Every structure is written in structure tokens, then in C-alpha cells.
Amino acid sequence: MPATVSFAVDPRLATLLGDAYRSTEQAIKELVDNAWDADAETVNITLPAEMSDIPITIEDDGSGMTEEELRSEYLKVARDRRALKGNQTAAKRRQVRGRRGIGKFSGLMVAEQMEICTKARGRESKLLIERAELMKARSDFEAVQFPFSSQACDPKEYGTTITLASLNRRLSHPNPEKLRRILVLDYGRAIDLKIFVNGQLATLHDIPGEAYSVAQKLPTVRAVKMSFAISDGKQAVKHPGIVIKVNGKPIGEPSFFGLDRREDVPPQVLKRVYGKIEADGLLEDVTADWAAVVENSTAYQELESYVQEVLREELGKTFRREFSLVHSRIKQQIEKRLAALPEHRRDFAHRHLEKILQRFYGENEEKIQAIVTVVLDALERDEYWEVLRAVHAAEHGDVEHLASALTAFGLLELVFIGKQTKSRFEVLNRLDLLVANPSTLESQMHQAIDHNLWILGSKYALVSSNRTMKKIVEEYTDTAYKGDNAAKRPDLLLLSEMYGRHLLIEFKRPSKTISRDDETQAQKYRDDLGTRFHPMQILLIGGAVDKSLRLNPGKDIEYFSYADLLARAGSEVDWLMKSLSEPPSTLKLHIR
Ligand SMILES: Nc1ncnc2c1ncn2[C@@H]1O[C@H](COP(=O)(O)OP(=O)(O)OP(=O)(O)O)[C@@H](O)[C@H]1O
Ligand SMILES: [Mg+2]
């Protein structure tokens, strides 16, 4: 064997040495994936203290590589090992993670030098790869020679140690907590791989959020041990759910034990659960291929209700704690509008909105706003209420049957929101025609939008106009623009926002482009009216918006072309329609 070796490579891969990984920790995880694929049982990672020049080491007790394997497997870039060696590892039958043949380079994102020391079948081989050399070679990796040595070692010793020296200073220093957190989300449920970072085992407790461990003796399944974490939601859990382990082997995919079919458990909270349950008593109920547990077996059902009970309790606590915080803003809006409803409707409306909030918990707030606004709009309408009452009265008749067939928002929400959403589409289509017509006046646009404030979108969901404000604006424009000046009279709409702010909209005709002059003029209206209504945001809407305004927008002022506005409203309506036609399968709002 010569004292140097080189990569056999596809030239496209030169770019790989760029920053393909999001963080140092993610890059290190690639190397742990390799240890997993090598059937390692223990991985020891040491991260140096900050500011020190000590290298990072990743040491595994896996299969290691022989000289020949180093050459043919390690140094072959972009080789799909699964195509050659199958989907499962040789000794432990693990699902193979490697697929692209490039993961090893992650080490070179973190460090200038990567040393591979690997032991297998009585030989220890060492290889030193320098990032700078590879970078110099660009597409011609094969031309780069790396120092290589090999010597005899104890034939009982197996495993690989990667040493990363001269760490890349552009990257933040690897953080042991963050690394454990990343690793545990992938390996926390594996029982045959232990990963230590600076001597500390990565466990479910590394998931930010709450971790739980419970043990119980069930009548049929007997002893079960469950450990799980509910993450704080800041980092997505990749494969959420609880995995069943029987005699140490995972059975099938992680699942939620039927909780995902319950309407009182918000799916967004479920997605944060990560854990395992050891239930050796299920041995008799596992299918022959170990891929599933026979679901209608008594033992499984017993386990299912146990897991449901434990999880529901903890999820309920987590949910209640966060729910009140997250939705307090939206709740204020609801309370305010509900207060205006006749008392007998209020309670009913309240319960329905709670369910919607719960259902969409964890979704983007704007989306929830949009839904809540539409539902509130619908609830305020008399005909909606009439049907509500009728359905309520027919509780035990056909309606129940029908209601359970309807998902998403439940019967009422589906029918009414659907109807309303469709009519909003209609309105938008008509407005499109109006905008396209060159003879349309600002006053016509003003009227149309004034009666359809929802067009302003969920951002302005909490605005309303009232007679007093209309009168004030009228008086103001009437006094300032009479006689010869009348033609210059602006078309203004003053709205109040729930949080004490005001919104002044100036409408221009659809054939007009909004310019800097218009902005200055609008700011003057604000100054004049602003003494009484403060603070005040301005919205200028016209046929088009001058580019300079878009590039350099003023403070507290927004400009829209009618087309922008309608397109934005259109996509909100569109989203609502989609939510209605593809309802999450787990939602059932019963009318009771
Ligand atoms: N720690 C290790 N122990 C034993 N063999 C290893 C180790 N690390 C890498 N190898 C061998 O080197 C090969 C190349 O590793 P590399 O990470 O570049 O690619 P991969 O794991 O096949 O695919 P991916 O790019 O998706 O990670 C592996 O397939 C494996 O055969
Ligand atoms: Mg790999």
C-alpha cells in the first residue's frame, strides 16, 4: 500500500466543501450517522472548551474499516452504499442512514484537518485530509494525495475515531447542549446506541421542554416503562410520537396511540411529543415481521388506553399553560365582539370559538386571525343564528348523523364559512372588474371597500368605522375643500383599531399612480386629523404605486395598488377555501 491515497470522485462534488450544513452541531451529527451505520454501540464526542485549540473527536466502537474498505468505501465520493450493501446494517439490522456518500465531508466544514483512525481485523489505518488541499484542487480531487499509514493492532479492537483539528473560526463554537439536543431527536429512542457528549449521555432530558418517565404494571401487558418529552416547540421534532419497544426492538413507526383521532387534543401539541414505551409483555402480539402490534389484541388496547391517559394528562397541562398566553390577543378580539352579541348567543359562540382556537393551536397567528374573523362575522348574522338554533333543536335526529360526517369546522362552520368564503370570492371578482375599468372613481372604490373591510386582510381584522368618525372626516374635507377647491377633495376613510390605534385610508382612483406628493398630502391629512385620533397609520390605495415609494417607504404609511390589495385578500380567501375543502381528518365539532 502506498503512503498516500486520493479520492475517487465525481467532479460535481467540489462544491460540497462549501457550507452545506446549518451548524457545527449538524455537521457533527453526520459523523454520528456514520457510526450508527457502522453498528456502533457507543459514540464518544468531545468538544473542546471555547477559545482552546484542542480538536473535536468523535469516537465510535463500530465495525471500523479495513485498509481496503477505506479505499473502496470511504474514499469513494458520492457512492450510494445502500445500492451496494442494502438498506440494513450487517450486524444490528439497523436502517442505514448514509445515502449520498458525502457525509464525511461535513467534518471539513468544521475543521481544516480531519484525521480518520480506524481499526478492523487487526489493522489500524490512519488518513489525514486537509481542507485547504481539497479546496485548491477544486474539481480535481483525485489529484490530491493524502498521507496514509497503516499498522498492526489488537485484532479484538474495532472502531473509528475522527479528529477534527484547527476548527473553522467563522462558525460558532460547538455547544454540547445543542449537540445533545440534535442527537437525541434522532437517537433518543434507540436503545442500542449510547451517545456521550463530553462524557454526558444524551437523553430525552436534552429536549428543551418537559421530560417524563413513568412505570406501571398493567393487568395483561404487565410491566411497562414509558419515557417521553414534550418539546417546547421551538425546534421541530422530526419523527414525533411514541415508539413501542418489545425486548429492546422498536416495533413499527412512532404513533400517538389514537390521540391523533381525538378532537380535544390539538395536533400541534401532539407533534411535539417524542418518546418510547417498553412493553415486553406484548411479545405474543407482535406480527411475525416485527413491523406492527396486532391492534385489536386485548394487550395492545390496554396499552393504548394507558398511554392515552398519561399523555393526555401531560399534554393537557402543557396546552393549558401555553394556550392562554398565545391566544390572549385573539381572545381580546373575540371578547369584544362577543360582548356585542345578544346574551343568549354569546355562550354558544364562545364554546365554538374556543374549539376553533384549540384546533388551530400552534398555527400561524395570522391564519387563526383570518378564521376567527370569518367565524365572528358569521356568528353576528341573524340567519346563521337561526340555523344554529334549528340544528341545536334537532340534536338527536338526522343532524347528528350528518354532523359527524362533516369534518373541519363542523357542520355550521363548514356551511357558513364556506358560503361566506364563496361570496367573498364573488366580491373580489366584481372589484377586479371595477378596478380594471378606467372610469371608476375613488368614491366608488371607497364605498365598496368601506362595506367590505375584510378586504384589508387579517392584519387589519380589528378595524371598524363609526358614524362619528365619518362625520368628523366629512366636516374636515368639506371645510378645507369647497368652492374651486372641491375637485381636490380627498376621499378619506377613518377607521378605529381595537388597540386604540387609527387607520386613515385615502382612496385614489384606479387609474392613478400613487406618488411621493400623494404621500406628503396624506401625511398632512393625518397631521390635521391626528390631533384627535392618535396614533394613526395611513393606507394609500390607488391604481399603482410609484417605485420610489416602494423602495423607500415612509413611516407608519402603507401603499397598495388595488390589485395588490385584492390579490392579498384573494389569497386569504383561497387559503380559507382550501382549509375547508381539505379538512384535517381528526376534527369533528359536534353540535351539542
Ligand atoms: N465511522 C465509520 N465507521 C465505519 N465506516 C465508516 C465510518 N464513516 C464512514 N464510513 C464508511 O465510509 C462511507 C462513506 O461515508 P459518508 O458519510 O461519506 O457517506 P454515506 O454515509 O455512505 O452517505 P451520506 O453522505 O448520506 O452520509 C460509508 O458508507 C461507510 O462505508
Ligand atoms: Mg454518512
Protein model, in words:
The protein is α+β, with helices and mostly antiparallel strands and 592 residues long. The protein is built from 19 helices and 21 strands. The protein has helices at residues 24-37, 67-74, 81-85, 106-110, 131-137, 176-187, 267-270, 298-326, 328-339, 343-359, 365-379, 382-393, 398-405, 410-436, 442-450, 467-480, 516-530, 547-551, 562-581; strands at 4-5, 42-46, 56-60, 111-120, 123-130, 146-152, 159-167, 194-197, 200-201, 209-218, 222-231, 241-246, 249-255, 273-278, 463-464, 491-497, 502-507, 513-514, 536-542, 544-545, 557-561. The protein has a nine-stranded mixed β-sheet. Helix 10 (343-359) packs antiparallel against helix 11 and helix 14 (410-436) packs antiparallel against helix 19. The structure holds adenosine-5'-triphosphate and magnesium ion. Residues 30, 33-34, 98, 103 line the site of magnesium ion.
List keywords for this structure.
extended; 9-stranded mixed β-sheet; 5-stranded mixed β-sheet; 592 residues; binds magnesium ion; 21 strands; binds adenosine-5'-triphosphate
How much helix is in the residues? 40-55%
Please mark out the parts with pLDDT under 50 across 5 or more consecutive residues, or reply none: 394-411, 583-592
Number of helices: 19
* Mean pLDDT figure: 81
Strand composition percent:
15-25%
What distance lies between the first and last C-alpha atoms, to the nearest angstrom? 80 Å
The secondary-structure class comes to alpha+beta
Assembly annotation: single chain
Q: Compute the number of strand runs.
A: 21
Instruction: List ligands, each type once.
Output: adenosine-5'-triphosphate, magnesium ion
Largest sheet: 9 strands, mixed
Radius of gyration: 32 Å
- How would the global form be characterised? extended
Strand order of the largest sheet: 1-6-5-4-7-3-2-8-9
